[in-house]
Write the structure tokens for this entry.
Amino acid sequence: MNLLMISGDSSVAQGQQSTHYHMLREFSRHWTRIDILCPPGPGAIPRQVHSNVFVHPSSWPKALQALHILRKGRALLAERGYTLVVTQDYGFFCGGLAALRLMRGRRIPL
């Protein structure tokens, strides 16, 4: 079972052991793989944590986060099947709106 998470939190991509990091440790016990799309942040780079959690930060400004979600999300969906897609929105809800567009016509719960 794979989980695609669209998050507004880039702390894990920045190498921080934040609340989000610890939450992902618990989630990683229940999922085969977790892919996280997140916005940019200082020092944010693609990372693998907890052996099966892969963080994909945007290299574009936050204003273009929806474009990152659509492009990277489509690439990830083409690579593997997901059981569930979740979105954690902050601010203008661009993650949720992009997720709706990304998942249009797919039979994966959002």
